[in-house]
Amino acid sequence: MQTPNHQAAAATPATARAAGRGPRNAPRPAALLSAAVLLIGPAAAACGSDSDPDSGSGPAVAGGTLRYAVETEPACIDPQVSPLDVAALIDRNIFDSLVELAPDGTIKPWLAERWEISDDRTAYTFHLRSGVTFHDGTVLDAAAVKATLDHAVDPKTKSQYAVGLLGPYAGADVVDPSTVRVRLSRPYTPILQALSTAYLGIQSPESLKRDNTEVCSSPVGSGPFSFTAWTKKQKIDLTRNDKYAWGPSSAKHTGAAYLDAISIQFIQEDSVRIGSLTSGQLDAVGGLSPSRVAALKSNGKLQYLKAEAPGGVYAVHLNSNRGPLADQRVRTALQRSVNLDQLVSTVYFGQYNRAWSPLSPTTPGYAKSLENTWRYDPDLANRLLDEAGWTAKDADGYRVKDGKRLTLAWPFGAQLLREQRDVLAQGITADAKKVGIEVNREGLDTGSYAKRVMAADADLWDASTVRAEPDILRTLFESEQGPAKGGMNVLKVNDPQLDEWLRHAAGTPHGDARDAEYVQVQKYVVDQALVIPVYTPSYLLGASKSLKGLSFEPTGYPLFYDVSKGKGA
Fold first, then answer.
1. Are β-strands 460-463 and 438-444 bridged in parallel, bridged antiparallel, or unpaired?
2. Element (H, E) at 421
3. Phi, psi at residue 509, to the nearest 5°?
4. 76, 119, 196, 384: which could join 333 in a potential S-S bond, CB 3.0 to 4.6 Å?
């Protein structure tokens, strides 16, 4: 999910927390799906490389440490706590999931060999593979799965994302050591995709007995790499799990990873990351600035890869509950005052596309019909502001009504900035000023920013999210999906019509009818100007050509299990 920073993360929530609910009789498990493969939609992410097609080819060479740099550092890498995409990127190496979202958009077995779904679609019974052990030596069993899911919904965990992913989770039953039944209070179609994400990676039940702070700083999974050390503000080190023999079916090899270790380094300055890559101090960098792509592609020693992330695009959300933006005319005026085509093209050099919907085009249920339907229209913006009574202007050119300037507060977390969103914000602010709207950007430390977000104390809030499921719309707009419940409805949208559509769609089986429900949601939030979709994020990665096997999972994060370094690298 990318949240205030989120990109994503594979990502999204629902809201019914299971903690405190008493058990109920599980419905009889009729084998609607015998395990193997479930199609959830078209390929979740368009991943590709613009590098030399021969780069990274040749036989894998075992050994070496991958030195990989990212822009931001997570505060916690307990997958059931952090909502950040950088946490998911790290945790995908440490944790395995019950099921896999394959590149073709199908759900396939992973830690679960097969599963059955009850007739009423409220019980999923998973049969676990044998021989899997966690990094601390604990054996994978049904109790470990139950412990992980219960950990996600436990209020003490303070999950910021995973609890929402579980939707109407009502508990898990240990049927026998190798069989676990996951119960839901109502049908919830996205559950299998949710269980495929790193955010619901299965943790060692022994490690979960530790203090939550320890779980955050040194989690224990069963993945191809184990956590080794965290040097704050510098790096996280992972070490190969030599016993690993249960990778996902889409992997290009079996057994242990090729790399000995991974060093994930935190370097916010784009120029420093790129300089370290070109000088050979790093093997690869994520979060590549679009302005650097041309130079990187011209460097014969480097390769460039790009993955379009599914889920929620980078968007500015508008607070309809207070101040000037409580008037839809003002919201629409702001939405139409921004020249997004020009702004996105100028800032991102054609690497990111202007967005038309809150959903990415690579997400099932994307409303393609929204494209080109709402364009830059300052004349309309000015007319709407006049109609709303903001007819006077002060000496600085800002609109005034009843003696008050039309001012909007847009706080941001300074440490979470990425993808030149600060430059983008300057452009949005400048365009808004042309029609008389003042936008005040305020940079805050992470703690202060979090308090503002939790209190919905803002007129504007921006984020992108990653999830290969249109249910991310429920995470963003359903009234119950506030941050306290693992959702991202930060500005407290409370619209009965939206709630009805989103809840019904979440329980509707995959297919055209479900997609149509999500299309109407996308059109509604744009028409009501609850959101300004800005650009569709892509994960831009630069790497040495000595690296082989670089790829992306369907949610757009790079995968390192199949990666190897060439001789002399």
1. unpaired
2. helix 421-434
3. -60, 155
4. 384
